[in-house]
Write a structure and sequence with these properties.
Layout: E1 4-9, H1 15-24, E2 28-30, H2 33-43, H3 54-71, E3 79-82, H4 85-96, H5 100-105, E4 113-117, H6 134-150, E5 154-157, H7 163-173
Parallel strand pairs: 1-3, 1-4, 2-3, 4-5
Helix pairs in contact: 1-7, 2-3, 3-4, 4-6
Length: 180
């Protein structure tokens, strides 16, 4: 969908903060599926957690990402996603060898421009939903640097600047206008 814009990249790189800024400016945003699943699994003593059963977790992320897309399909303006299906599919393919990128990446398209947050150790923090370290986050980022272009997406690396400037960068790159 041409109005569905992915903000992806390194964990702890400021994606959620950027999405909050875009929401404040009146844009629709979709929270990262992984964080929602971690909260739900933790509350329900589930095992589909990245540190318990990563493949099960990733399958739930993919299912939620597909449902998220469906839930906003009628929006006629930009919708910003904190990560996309490609993120989970790339990791699942890396773990299991299943051709997830070819299967999901081509069938469920986003805007051709994807914004990536580079590793930013100075702001990286672990929390109850992000237990992995910066090295793991950087490895994930490097996979995404390959996965998105392999599916025909153009990447824009987000500058390491304040959130207001980052949001301006995203909107200016998209043409500084509503998608309508």
């Amino acid at each position: 969908m041409n109005r569905f814009v992915v903000i992806s990249g390194c964990s702890g790189g400021g994606k959620s903060t950027l999405l909050a800024e875009l929401a404040q400016r009146g844009y629709a945003v979709v929270e990262e599926p992984g964080r929602r699943i971690v909260r739900a699994e933790t509350e329900n003593n589930g095992t589909a957690l990245p540190w318990v059963d990563l493949p099960a977790f990733l399958r739930q992320v993919i299912a939620m990402a597909l449902a998220d897309r469906d839930a906003v399909r009628t929006s006629d303006d930009w919708v910003f996603f904190d990560r996309g299906i490609v993120d989970a599919a790339a990791t699942l393919q890396h773990l299991t060898g299943e051709p997830m990128l070819a299967t999901l990446g081509h069938a469920h398209r986003y805007h051709p421009r994807v914004f990536l947050t580079p590793p930013w150790p100075e702001i990286y923090v672990q929390d109850p939903e992000r237990r992995h370290g910066i090295d793991s986050a950087t490895s994930e980022y490097l996979r995404l640097l390959e996965a998105y272009p392999a599916l025909g997406y153009d990447l824009s690396l987000l500058p390491k600047v304040g959130v207001t400037e980052r949001a301006d960068f995203v909107l200016e790159t998209l043409g500084n206008r509503r998608s309508r």
